[in-house]
Predict the structure of Heme-degrading monooxygenase HmoA.
Amino acid sequence: MMHMAEIVSGEPDREAWASWLDETRVLRDRHGLVDAELFERVEDIRDATYAYISVRGWTHEEDFQEAMALGALDHGFSGRAVERIVIRMRTQLGDLAPTGPGHVWLVNPFEIAGAEIEGALAMWDRAKDHMLAHPGFMNARLFRARSPAAKHGLLNVSQWRDAASFKQALADRAYDRHRERSLSYKLHPSLCRRVFDLGEASAAPVPVPSVPAESVVA
């Protein structure tokens, strides 16, 4: 399976993600899209200037290539500046889960390339046991860009039961050495809400945005 991430600049608004939903419907119905998630930034943790990050997946790469060639990926986000990255799953921790009350997602694009990537992977591998053991952690996925020249070489997406659990894990003194290592890399983490998941969408129509805009983060 192959994935594409989209990092969308600016501030969240309904028009932007409504256009993404419309594009997602077309990709699902005509171009073999099987997986799509859209995350909206609600709290900046460090230098997160994006409004949305999406992750969409295809079982067959030829379906993705056809969609690209036909311009089917050019209509989302209402003309916003979008960075698109072809990615592959590097690691998954825990089972993926549906959206529940209070759930938040840490979404963290790593602005690294080339030789920096291996060091960042080693850092992530050392830190993951701390997060796995912490109450409130649900799952995590680490994606790696296919191209070594991509601006954002890694993307971490992890689900937590609530923002307080994540913040407690981040503030834990046992995490200090991992935090210090992370400062040597240009990371852009934020807490997000998942405003759409194709796996949770019911039947045929992709819904129109109707989720209240208020933040889920205290």
